[in-house]
Each structure stands twice: as structure tokens, then as C-alpha cells.
Amino acid sequence: xxxxxxxxxxxxxxxxxxxxxxxxxxxxxxxxxxxxxxxxxxxxxxxxxxxxxxxxxxxxxxxxxxxxxxxxxxxxxxxxxxxxxxxxxxxxxxxxxxxxxxxxxxxxxxxxxxxxxxxxxxxxxxxxxxxxxxxxxxxxxxxxxxxxxxxxxxxxxxxxxxxxxxxxxxxxxxxxxxxxxxxxxxxxxxxxxxxxxxxxxxxxxxxxxxxxxxxxxxxxxxxxxxxxxxxxxxxxxxxxxxxxxxxxxxxxxxxxxxxxxxxxxxxxxxxxxxxxxxxxxxxxxxxxxxxxxxxxxxxxxxxxxxxxxxxxxxxxxxxxxxxxxxxxxxxxxxxxxxxxxxxxxxxxxxxxxxxxxxxxxxxxxxxxxxxxxxxxxxxxxxxxxxxxxxxxxxxxxxxxxxxxxxxxxxxxxxxxxxxxxxxxxxxx
Length: 428
Prior knowledge:
By secondary structure, the protein is of the alpha/beta class. Helix 3 (82-98) crosses helix 14. Among the domains are: 37-172, Leucine Dehydrogenase, chain A, domain 1 (Rossmann fold); 188-349, NAD(P)-binding Rossmann-like Domain (Rossmann fold, 3-Layer(aba) Sandwich). A seven-stranded mixed beta sheet has the order 9-8-7-6-10-11-12, sandwiched between helices. It has a five-stranded mixed beta sheet with strand order 1-2-4-3-5. The chain is built from 14 helices and twelve strands.
């Protein structure tokens, strides 16, 4: 494990600084883009079910909106920090830019653990978050979405509070809403499917038939489940899945050498993606330590949980068979680990390209809400495939032409587009 403190914002800034130097950005542009334009920190008082009042800490960071309204999720997590939110907001800017959608980057969060909150208490946190930030978000300025441990119900409570305050209907204010209440078909699958659309294209470049590859996945939340689903639908085999065990407060890896059955694992998982270890054992799964997902003899590693999961302390445990790391999570690989993977010739699909399917479909949801006309699911997923394939092709072409690591090429495209928008607006 890492022995030095991990600060995701410092990682995000170091990644940016490296590419800014290569692009020879003006000092003013560089200084503007390496930090958030605006950030908000506030308290949310909630009367709990037992009658006591508990105060929760909330955040919203708007990194850059030169290319369009800020866009980014709201996560509920007991270990949330302002630096995590800052980093994620910056990565959102690059993510929207690399897939070329007219949005900027933002991120929000609340320090809380939904595992220990009733539905009513979670609703009050959602409504309180909106009340504290309502003057600084909106359909033409900042459009939130779900993230870690938030879902369509949370977004609908937030939308309802926003509309109650403003006295109107603004379905384009927030995305990730339930279908039938302004949500888009295909949004649930979008991030995970987008990961696999990108992975599919990478395997073509590498000359590896997808249906002959084997993968190990970290996480069993929304992104991981739908990435595993699409990957297996296309013929791939997932042999290991790692997830958090809420009761034991540790993560476990569940392995089945012949390939996991996604349907049976979903049947024994809770709503947060925790797999019942006893029932998994009865179904023939081998329970292993949480980090064992990283050590499997597979072709593909798919980290789809949290940041800082492949780092200096464990990157050496990755099997020599691994050819591709497809980052479904945000910031799962540290810069030190990146260098090791680069030396080993592992093809790394960077997070802000690979998992951009979610924000791309969120953009589609915005478009549909604003037009008050909704597309069929097949149309949504076809448009998503086109966007992800096009974005991969552009990044891979630059990487091949200039002999760059994929992450560096993706950053160069994304940062250059935002820098150009900043210059054209006369901001720097």
C-alpha cells in the first residue's frame, strides 16, 4: 500500500503541469486552468429521525466553464474531502473536453454515509444541499448528476427543491433522473458501456480479439456492473470481482476461474454493490483479499471503484499477462504507478476518456430535457458508441503519431481545447 499521503488534487495538478509544459501554454492560461475558478463549502443541518440535529459538510467546486456550463456529479461519502472534489472537478473539465461536448467541469459532495441514513434523512441532505448552493447552480451555469452512493432518487429530490425555490420547471438542471421524470434511457448503463466501447477499440488496435480476453474488475457498483455486462455480452470473460464488505469494513475479491456469472452476483449484492460473502461461497466463488483482483493472470484490469487503487505500493503485483488497464473509476492510477505501467508497455486507457460515457449520456439527457423530446434507448446507446469511438480514435491517432502514452495524448487534446476557449473568450 502507499505509505505517503495521497492528495488527489496534487495528482490532478501534476498531471496538468506536465502537459501544460509540453503544450507551452501561456503562464496566465496555465495558472487559470490549474485551479478551480469557484468553490463553495457549506453546512447542511438535518433533523435526524431520533430528533437530534446533525450538521453535514457540503461542497461544490466549479473548475472551469469556458466551454459551457459546469458539469459533474455529487457524491455522498464519509471520507469526502475538498481536495478530492477539486481534483474530480478538474478531471471533469478534461473529460467533457476530450469527448468534445459543450460543458465544463464541476463536482460536489457531502461528507456522510448513506448506509447509516434513512431515506428521509437522505432526502433532507439533498434538499439542504440545494438550498445552500441554489444561487450558484442551474441549467445554464452548473448541472449536477449522481456519483458515488447517490442515484436518480437523490437527483429528483434535488430537482424538486430547485424547482420549488425558483417556482418553475427546469428538468435540464440536473441529470441522472429516473426515466419518466426527465431521465434518459440508457443513462444507467452509459458509463460502464462507454468503458467497454473504448476498451473494444483499444483491443482492435492491439490485435486482441475481445472474445478471447479475460478480465478482472475492481468494484461492483453501477460502472463495474455494466462494464462487466457489456464486456461479457461481447464475448469476454470476467474471472474476478472485488467489492467492499460493509459488515467487515474491508474489501474482498470473489474469483471463479471459469468466469463469474453476473446475474447470480447481482442477485446476492446489496444496493451499494456489496456481495454477500457467504452466499458467494455457496455459489462456488473463492473469497480472496480485496487487493487480489490486481494480481490475477488476466489480459485486462478494470478498476471501477475509487481513486488511488493502483499505486507505487502495489503496481509491482500486477501479473505480466496484463496488457490493458481500462480505468472505469476516476483517478485510480497514481503517477508513480503510471510510470511503471508505461515501462512495462501496458496499454492504459485513461479515466477521463474511458469513463466519459456517463457525462456524455448526461449531456444527451440535457439535450432531450431542453427539447422536451426523448430518444429510444437504442438511439441513445448508438450515439454514445459513436462519441466514445470517435474520442478514442482522436486520442489514439495523436498517441501513435507522436509516440505518446495514451493519458498524455488525451490530456493534450482536452487541455488544448479548454485553453483555446479561454483564449478566445479573452480570459487569459
